[in-house]
Structure formats: structure tokens, C-alpha cells
């Protein structure tokens, strides 16, 4: 999210970037978007205002299909399929 998290050997940066992009694309989209949005505006306003923004964002995220998928996958001890959950929520695929 704009912060370097690892170094790569010469010539491997593109492959590493694509791997990270795939990981993010396969992740819980709403949570990633909310996290990035909150990080961008973190310095605006007071701490109580920031906490309020975080609470409001969490209300939306915790009701998302991808959050539900993550919780179900955890309890079922399986890898979550966030993309399929998002498609089901959009009505593009049967449950």
C-alpha cells in the first residue's frame, strides 16, 4: 500500500510485483479498499475523528460477502475464495 515490504534480486522485481498484485486481487476487496482509504486520510483531523471513520468503515466491511467468506473459511479450515464470494454477492454465480 505504498510501503516497501521486501527487496528482490536484480531482475525479479516485476515478478514479485505481479505476485503481490495477484495476492491483493484475490483478497477481501472491501477490507483492502477500506484499509487503503483510511491510511490515505490518517493524518486528517483528530484521533477521535479517525477512530470514528474506522468504526464506520468496519460497519460496512464486516457485512461484506468477502468478510463472511473469510470467517467461514477459517471455521471450516480451508482457504477462502474471496473472488467467488464477491461474484455470488453480485449475483453472477449461484451460492
UniProtKB/TrEMBL annotation:
This is Unannotated protein. It comes from freshwater metagenome.
